[in-house]
Amino acid sequence: MQTPNVGSTGHVAHDILESASEITRCAWPNRFCTPAEALEVPNRQILFGELGNASESELIVSMPHGRTRASQVTFYRLESPMSNEEAEWFLQTKHKVAADPFSTASIFRSDPRLMLLVGVQWRDYLGRWCDMAYDRWSVRGQIVTVMRRNHTWPAGWRIPGMDPESVHFRF
Q1: CA nearest neighbour of 167 among 78, 98, 77
Q2: Are strands 167-168 and 65-66 parallel, antiparallel or unpaired?
Q3: Burial of 46 from C-beta contacts in 10 A (0-12 / 13-18 / 19+)
Q4: What is the pTM of this model?
Q5: Which is it for the CA torsion 161, 166, 72, 110, positive or negative?
């Protein structure tokens, strides 16, 4: 499916954006910034872990860095709930891997309209799942949570994927 033209503003463009099954954008992340700087996106509070979960520093160290200056990121809308493993398999069927947090955040800085219930996931150096959830319906307002957990992404959320050669991990 082709990405809809979302160049206009207003409710029509927002409705098209929300209903599209795939949205593709080019990411131009700053690969020289710190992970904390990469996570800064407009109008979002960042929360690290909850209930004795991983510390902020553990999560930041585990974040994958991309390795390309620019990359295409496709946001896939989930038709049904998916666990981390199922989402990873789903991206593999599209010949993609989970997009790195640097690339995803750079897209959100340039087009905040895309922060529509997006889940970015990766594995830390011990193979444990970590994720960033861009949630706009939280009781805390519009937030980004960064956690280590096994998670099931609800239907309607988006999982960003990119070409495998665009991502590498810094362990």
Answers
A1: 98
A2: antiparallel
A3: middle
A4: 0.79
A5: positive
How many residues appear in the chain? 171
pLDDT by residue (tens digit) across 121-138? 998 888 889 888 887 665
Integer angstrom CA distances of residue 124 from 8, 23, 57: 39, 27, 12
Rounded Cα distance, 153 and 132, in Å: 11
Q: Single out the residue of 82, 89, 97 nearest to residue 165, CA to CA.
A: 97
Relative to beta strand 82-83, strand 152-153 is: antiparallel
Task: Give the residue extent of every domain in the chain.
Answer: 11-165
Angstrom distance (rounded) from CA 143 to CA 132? 10
CB 96 within 8 A of CB 74: yes
State both tokens at 167.
């991502």
